[in-house]
Each structure stands twice: as C-alpha cells, then as structure tokens.
Amino acid sequence: RDALTAGFAAARDQGVIPKGEAFFEYGHGMNFGKAHFVRGMEVSYGQRWLWFDAARVLTLTPSMVVYLPRDWTWQVSLSMARSRFPGLPAGWRPSGVTRLTFPLHRRVYGNVFYAVGTEDYARTDQLGRFSARTYGGGLRIAVRQRQELTFYVAYQDRSQSRRQTSIGFSYAIRF
Description:
Radius of gyration: 19 Å
Number of helices: 0
Shape: globular
Oligomer: single chain
C-alpha cells in the first residue's frame, strides 16, 4: 500500500540533459472494494531537483490514479516547476495532465489524454517562454502475459503559432 522511491543521477550533459539529478516520491494506495463506484485510488507526491549547466530546476508533482468499474482508470498529475537562470529571478510554471484508460477488447486498452503547461528556456542566444496544449490517445495490446505493444499519437498546439504531431510505439517485456 505504500511506496517510497529515492535516487540520484549524474551525467555528461552534452548541453541537453541535466548534469545532476536527485529525486524522491512517496505513494499510498487505497482499496474501497467492489461495492463502491471508485474501487481504489493511488495518491503520490514527488520532488525532483535538476542541475543543468546554467539552470537549476525544482519540480513538485502530486498525482492520483482512480480505479473505476470495468477496468477503467483515470489519472491526474499536476506539476509546479521552479526554474532559475543566471542573472534572472526564479519563476514557477504550472503544468498538468489527465488520462482516461478504458478496455476495448479482452487484451486491448485505449486511452485519451490532455496536457497543458508552460515552460521557460534559456540558451546563450535565446531567452523565453512557451505554453502548450497537447491532445492525444493510444492503444495498449497485451501480446502475451508479460509482453505488450503500445501505440500513441499526440498533437501539440504551442504558443507562437507552432504545432507538432508525434506518433510512437513501444514493445515491452515485463520481468
């Protein structure tokens, strides 16, 4: 019913990924039984510290998964990211995502999601912010007991009249 995760990472940043990272997450699960509309719920809270070459980022992320009848699930995650760039005041930026997952067939699940957020960025020649709304959906197919295929498509509408469509798939083997 309870889970605690903590860790850290270090890397050569190559100008893209963080040079250092530390994180922790605590989660708690609850079972309400089959007699209720909401059969169960998982709530969690996580914090992540990221150290880039010139920027520092802290994220605070509470989230919740609600287990509904007939194997439907609803997930909601909110994030607050505090970015600090050299010579500028620190700023908080919110984002969030919600996903509804539902069975389509015996071993096939579908999902739809919506995400919204803002982000600051800084490079040697640029400083700015953008916001985006992302809509999407996907399929998860259980190939065998411990193997699955997932497919997704996402459309992102960003500020400054920029748009992006992403399509992807993965194959997983569970141990």
